[in-house]
Every structure is written in C-alpha cells, then in structure tokens.
Design a protein that fits this description.
The protein has ten helices and twelve strands. The protein has 308 residues and is an alpha/beta fold. It has a three-stranded parallel β-sheet, with helices on one face. It has a three-stranded antiparallel β-sheet with strand order 4-5-8. Strand 9, helix 7 and strand 10 form a beta-alpha-beta unit. Helix 2 crosses helix 9 and helix 4 packs across helix 6.
Length: 308
C-alpha cells in the first residue's frame, strides 16, 4: 500500500492548483519569498494555477494594511496570482459548518487548558480534557479528537513521512476566544479552492498529519505535499524569528529574487543576474525541479544574505 493510499481517502485532484497563504502579521521577508517562489514555480512548471490566500483569522496579530502591502510586494517580484485573493476572515461560515459536522460525530471535545497549563506548546497535548473540561468556569477551546495510530504520507521533498497521532496530540480547531484555528481553516480552504499541490516550509511538516486526519474525517481530498527546507541563520534560528529578517524591498526585487533562487538551488547564470523579475521567473520555471532540495529540512545562510 502506498503512503498516499495508507493516509486514508486520498482523492487525487485533476488540474494542478497551488497556493501561497501568508499571514498578514508582518512584511514578507526572504524566507517568505523562498516559499512563495517555490510554490509559484512548481505551479507554473506544471501549467497550473497559483492562488493567494490571506490567513487573517488571528485578528489580534493582523496589521492593518499588511495584506495590501504583501500583494504589492508579490506584484513587484513578478509573482502574479490567478483569480481573486481569498481572506479567511470572510470564510468563517465554511469553517463553522465543518466544525459542526465534526461535533455531531463526536470527533471534538472542549478543552479548558490554557497555554500556561500546556507549557505554550500545541504538540504533545496530554489529553487532559478528553473526558470533559477540567475547569468548571471560563472559556474553552475545541480540539479535534485524534485516533490511535500513525499517519504515513509521501512528501515530494522530505520523502516518506510517518507521524504518531497520540504523540502529536489533539489539535485545537477553535480557539478559546472563539476564532477558528489554522488546522481546520487550512483544510477547509484547500478543499474548497481545489488545491491539488501544497508547497510550503518544513516547519509545517508535522501539521500535515493532523490535516490529513481532518481531511479524512470531513471526507475531503488530500493534496500532494512538498515541504521546502526552512531558511535559517548560522545560529540555527528561523529567519522569520530573526531581528535581521528584513522586509523585502520592491526596488531590489531582482537581486532578492536571485537570492531566493540560489537558496532553492536554482542559481541564475551570470547574464541573468541583473535581469527583471519576469525574466528570472521565466528562466526558472523552465528548469524548475524539487530534486535540488530533496530531503533537506534546513538551508543555513549567512547574516549578509538575509539582508540582501
């Protein structure tokens, strides 16, 4: 049995549809660009569509005007998307319907545990409230009740993967403040937009197991996944968390795009180093392959590159 069929009700989707789904909580940086370029080139090489979706459900962290800034930045880098930009904050009815479906089948439970109770970690949830909230008062979150067992799947970059669901724990799908959580929203959105291929950072590799289980529970198709290496500094810190994670500069789109392509192991030839973003992406889309980053979870860069 293949990893994909073992994952459950895998339903391959015909036409290639990819997506880039940033959170408008800060400017795009080099790590964001690598993920965007990787997903964009994979879609274009396949002759497919590339969508943009704003994951703006966490209203406490959303920065006003950030979505527009992100879109203008993508345009400056030649990363033109297909169709309308979707905003998760406008799709809550879809998430509510899916949550109700899970509740009706006993696949959720309410949890009164705070982040402090859990050591500020979503993984390894010990099942404290599986038989009911331990606190009698106060708001509760809704968790998806995972089954015993493992989730195997084949990742196009990381290869065969297998995660133990009870080790990961029961993920939050509706937060204590009532907002829908990422794990549920991303599954509903990908299915509704008919996303066939997800190309994103390796920091979300373990989340894929939860998402496949939610897809099975909601009888939704499972996309093919490819988790690109994370861009980290020599200190092993994630670039997105670094003080040197500077915002992309549209006026430097060409040179910053060259840096992203180099990190994706697609270095443009010397004669293209000063080319326009459109020319660089056209060159890269013809030669694109994920084989160049096969099996890598991280790419370490110098602090100088992070400031290009």
């Amino acid at each position: 049995m293949s990893a994909e069929s073992a994952a459950g009700d895998f339903q391959p989707i015909g036409a290639y549809v990819g997506r880039f789904a940033p959170s408008p909580t800060g400017s795009l940086h080099l790590g964001s660009l690598v993920a965007a370029v990787g997903s964009f080139l994979d879609a274009r090489k396949a002759g497919g569509r590339w969508l943009v979706r704003m994951e703006d459900l966490d209203t406490t962290r959303v920065i006003p005007g950030c979505s527009d800034e992100m879109l203008r930045t993508l345009e400056a880098f030649g990363l033109w998307w297909d169709g309308a930009v979707e905003f998760q904050s406008r799709r809550t009815e879809l998430y509510s319907e899916s949550l109700q479906s899970l509740r009706e089948r006993g696949l959720t439970f309410e949890c009164s545990c705070s982040r402090r109770d859990l050591g500020n970690s979503e993984t390894g949830y010990p099942g404290t409230c599986r038989n009911g909230p331990t606190a009698r008062r106060g708001p509760t979150a809704t968790r998806f009740r995972v089954a015993d067992g493992v989730v195997p799947f084949s990742d196009r970059v990381q290869g065969p993967c297998c995660f133990d669901l009870r080790t990961l724990g029961d993920p939050v799908i509706r937060r204590r403040d009532g907002a829908f959580a990422y794990q549920l929203a991303v599954v509903v959105d990908d299915a509704d937009q008919r996303v066939s291929n997800v190309v994103r950072g390796a920091d979300l590799l373990a989340s894929t197991a939860w998402q496949i289980e939610l897809q099975k529970a909601l009888k939704l198709p499972t996309p093919r996944y490819a988790h690109l290496p994370l861009i980290v500094e020599q200190t092993q810190g994630k670039l997105a968390k670094s003080r040197r994670s500077l915002a992309l500069v549209p006026a430097l789109a060409g040179s910053q795009l060259v840096s992203a392509l180099m990190l994706l192991q697609h270095p443009p030839p010397a004669e293209l180093q000063q080319a326009s973003p459109a020319a660089l992406l056209a060159w890269a889309s013809e030669r694109w392959t994920l084989d160049t980053v096969q099996g890598k979870k991280e790419i370490i860069i110098s602090s100088q590159i992070s400031q290009v």
